[in-house]
Give the backbone structure.
Amino acid sequence: MADMEFRTEGLTKVYGQGQTAVHALRGTDLSLPKGEMTVLLGHSGSGKSTLLNILGGLDRASSGKAFFRQTELTALKEKALTRYRREHVGFVFQFYNLVPSLTARENVALVTEIATDPMTPEEALERVGLTPRMDHFPSQLSGGEQQRVAIARAIAKRPNVLLCDEPTGALDSKTGITVLEALKSINDDLGTTTVVITHNADIQRIAHRVLHMADGRIVSEEVNATRLAPSEVAW
């Protein structure tokens, strides 16, 4: 298991109690190799975001175990879990969460100032193709550009893993493809283990591995023999 970035055993998550309890995860087992891009598919309520949040240290399981490499995440105290998020995980969400009063460069610098071995904001923005726009404010950027700033902010601390929850959900096809190209480039060039939740099933074709979730479980897993370029994905 030394080459596994993430591993879970019988992971469950229950919100609430009694008759109103919601079983978000129902005994999820998975193994995700280092350096791969994985796409996670499933209907709303299938448990995708809950699983991603537990892997990222944003939420805790009700039972079962989750491991990052040799570290059992489900056994960590809050302080250690915070350190894990800070040092190892980059997050990208559907909504960009940029600070409106800061430029693209300054938004990325918020992360580089607290990381131990960060890229410069300029390098991170260059990796997502935004060098000409780094001194613009979010209101001066398109949706796709704002999402690429969010990706630059996530990768600037050189995380081991990049966890993306519907990163193209609010974008049209052209800007969505540009964002996917940035994610694929980071995975290819930096070897960052990347997990992407999406409702667009065609995006699975750019990944190494595809997991399908339903009713809180992983119901199937596929490995792509060949990967498409984001520009080849139907929207």
About this structure: The chain has a mean pLDDT of 93. The two ends are 36 Å apart (CA to CA). The first strand starts at residue 4 and ends at 15. The beta strands are 4-15, 22-33, 37-41, 63-68, 71-72, 89-93, 161-165, 193-197, 209-214, 217-223.
